[in-house]
Amino acid sequence: MRIWVARPEPGATRTGAVLAERGHAPLVAPVLAVRPTAAAPPVGPFAALLLTSANAVPAIRDVPALRGLPVFAVGARTAALARAAGLGPVREGPGDASGLAALVTATLPSGDSLLHATGAERKPEPAATLTAAGFRVTAFVTYRAEPLERLPPAVGRELAGNRLEAALHYSRRSAAVALALADGSEHGGAFRRLRHYCLSPDVAAPLEAAGVPVHFVAARPREADLLDALAP
């Protein structure tokens, strides 16, 4: 199956390789470009570091002040990258922000100060739940995910030729940007006819709100579940 992988790098290339190994024909064409902010971390002390995206890891791996700080990672992939970067010790969450908040509250005492390494655009969770539980959460903006101005040319050509069959969506924002870029080109109709596979209900939300049929939504936010749903 010819599948558009719209997630940012470096995850996009990795996903494309897995798809190729499974016999699919991936089109790796991210709609977001992740760029580090090079910002200095806020002054602590902090009891732990929260990671809700693997995109934060390259930006913080060489920050001396964060070495040795306990890490709570949202899921398996982020945890693996954090360990490979020499961060931690690392505790692994179940793959979503609410589960990460539950792990933190079950592990650390209320009142602790936490540093959340995040992107410029972030969701309320897990900070909202942790704040309500008595934790002090400080955001550390480590990267920006900047949308492309136009649909990637390769995607436009494939849509025009009706050669694309499906699209994989890993985040709410990348799904929304992919839709906006397609609608801003002459290929909005072809985009809507694709089989859209989404990592979670939150990821699927902007597509469904725009009336785009979603073929599959993973019950758990895990890439393995998403890829297993693809037709061979």
Strand order of the largest sheet: 3-8-7-4-5-6
CATH class of the largest domain: Alpha Beta
- Count up the domains: 2
Strand content range: 15-25%
Low-confidence stretches: none
- Helicity, as a percent range: 25-40%
| Gap from first CA to last CA | 7 Å
Write the layout of secondary structure elements.
Elements (H helix, E strand, L loop, with lengths): L1 E4 L5 H11 L3 E4 L3 E5 L11 E4 L5 H4 L10 E3 L2 H9 L5 E3 L4 H11 L5 E7 L7 H6 L3 E12 L5 H8 L5 E4 L2 H13 L3 H5 L2 E4 L2 H9 L6 E2 L5 H6 L4
Parallel strand pairs: 1-2, 1-9, 4-5, 4-7, 5-6, 7-8, 9-10, 10-11
Antiparallel strand pairs: 3-8
Helix pairs in contact: 7-9
Describe this structure in words.
The chain contains 10 helices and 11 strands. The mean pLDDT is 94. It folds into 2 domains: 2-31 and 148-228, Rossmann fold (3-Layer(aba) Sandwich), CATH 3.40.50; 35-145, 3-Layer(aba) Sandwich (Rossmann fold). The protein has 232 residues and is α/β, with parallel strands linked by helices. The longest helix is centred in the last third of the chain and has 13 residues, at 172-184.
